[in-house]
Amino acid sequence: MKYKITLWAIVTVFTSYSFGMGNNYNKAAAASVAGKQAATQQQEETKTLNNDCDFPLEDIGKDCNIKSRVESIGVFENISRTEEHSYGYVISLWKSDRQILGFFNLYEGSPEPDRSGPVIKGNIDDDGLHFTVWTKQSKAFKNWQQSGVYLYSFEGKLLKDKIEGGISFYDCSNGKLNENYDEKVVLIPTDMFKAENFEDWNEYYAPDLNVLIGF
Q1: CB atoms within 10 A of CB 191
Q2: What is the four-CA torsion angle of 195, 197, 200, 202, rounded to 10 degrees?
Q3: Kind and range of the H or E element at 137?
Q4: Environment class of residue 12 by beta-carbon count within 10 Å: exposed (0-12), middle (13-18) or buried (19+)?
Q5: pLDDT, tens digit, for every residue of 27-52?
Q6: What's the pTM value of the predicted model, to 2 decimals?
Q7: Contact (Cβ atoms closer than 8 angstroms) between residue 130 and residue 101
Q8: Which residues fall within 8 angstroms of residue 155, CB to CB, at 6 or more apart?
Q9: pLDDT, tens digit, for every residue of 170-208?
Q10: Domain spans of the chain?
Q11: 181 HSE (CA, 13 A, CB side)
Q12: Domain spanning 58-213: CATH 2.40.128.30
């Protein structure tokens, strides 16, 4: 009897150990798969961003008919200012022929935007508001033409009185992606330029776009 109990105990311990090892193996395998999937997803995202770095700015609005109606989404900002410094974002957004049009300014301390550029792709639907902007240093900087291209991507929602979400950052010069560049952004609406159609919009922003295209 004593022998049987001992044998049963050994079998029980061995079974429990094997079960535990199996669970640990399954967890490790699942973690490995998840890690590989995340790495693959990031590689695909980085590849897409690399392509966006070379986006031909002259193609902005190429699918819009010159008389296409432009619907104002709004100008949204969160600028905080002191006597000498400004910090935050300003984004102007329109929609025309199912395309998102817009212009972005980033303030990192200067009274004038530190970086500026157009929206190169985006969409707005029931799932939220998504757009990517292509930027270089502002013309206020001496050697802005030689500045690197930075991409800022917004993922969030358009609400009644604000847009909120997160911004990721991609440096085209070294391929570094910061998915958590600014995780919680809230921008409130302000006054904006009114455009009746794409021709009006293009005329208003053509000088800024032509400067960026021209180097």
Answers
A1: 7
A2: 110
A3: strand 128-137
A4: exposed
A5: 555 555 555 454 555 556 566 677 89
A6: 0.71
A7: no
A8: 128, 130, 165, 166, 168
A9: 999 899 999 999 999 999 998 766 666 777 777 777 666
A10: 1-53, 58-213
A11: 19
A12: yes
